[in-house]
Amino acid sequence: MNFINLLLQYWQPIVEILILWFVIYHIMLFFVGTRANNVLKGIIVLVLAFLLIQVFKLDILDWLLTKLLGISVIALLIIFHPEIRQGLARLGQRHLFGPNLHEEDLDHMLKEIVTATENLSKIKLGALIAIEKNDSLTGYIESGVAIDSRVSSDLIEAIFTPNNPLHDGALIVQQGRIAAAGCLFPLAVNQELSRIFGTRHRAALGLSEESDALIIIVSEERSDISLVYKGKLYKDLGRDEILTKIKEILKSKERNG
Amino acid sequence: MVKQKVGLAYRVAHFFTYHPWLKILSLLLSVIVWFYAKGEINRFSN
Hints:
The structure holds 2 protein chains of 2 kinds. Chain A is α+β, with helices and mostly antiparallel strands. Chain A has 2 domains: 2-93, no CATH class; 103-256, YojJ-like (1 (3-Layer(aba) Sandwich). Chain A is built from 10 helices and 7 strands. In chain A, strands 2-4-3-1-5-6-7 form a 7-stranded mixed β-sheet, with helices on both faces. In chain A, strand 3 (170-174) and strand 4 form a beta hairpin. In chain A, helix 3 runs antiparallel to helix 4, helix 6 (103-122) crosses helix 8 and helix 6 (103-122) packs antiparallel against helix 10. Chain A starts with a helix and ends in a 6-residue tail after the last helix. Chain B has a domain at 19-46. In chain B, 78% of the residues lie in helices and 0% in strands. Chain B is built from 2 helices and no strands. Chain B has helices at 8-17, 20-45. Chain B is elongated.
């Protein structure tokens, strides 16, 4: 009974703190794994320092830090405007009730994709395949040619065969079906990306910076298969490694955070 | 394709296992921010 009374008495602060928690957690979650991660850690240290200064009433440091925080907000907006833009875009693209595939359908789809990528790498043909997870890729699908077909290794190989009008862009798999091919992705802005990676890898990383899609790349030059997810590149993977990694990523229900 | 339901138990387990430290840190920060804002509001209203 006391607990209920306490809850009724303080429900407003509890709700406010819960909302703040939700917002702060999602901002931090967005920055994990990006170049802004270290900056976020710095901000947390500054906030804790600010708190200690307030507690111990160190007025000069308080004045200095207040001025510094005021300026740093503007500086952060300028430095991280691409990340902020991506974050807002991601907020708008999020599927709240996106369907999930059955285990057998998922297995079939992945086997077809991996078989196609293996065959393409054997004959040194490049490919770029994006699998939609929670964030919608509809905007990118519209940049290519709509296909709407069951996933089949033969069809994927045919699409990426040179002289095919669609072979130059990317193929997008949405809700277990090949949605479109010849799609264009944004190129990664990451300056540290090794020069040995071509436009295909940059496009894959570019898309992974703007969405939670899983991207498979078959390199024309090195004929290896790589995987890109949320800005991370998993290079030179074998058939089993790819299957395990893709399943692991697709099955993690990260939208519930 | 057929829809697959995500169970409540999975969601609860996922809540505790997915980035637990981030959740603790963000809760700590939200409490600090709330008390700071409360202090500032009281300072200006008095």
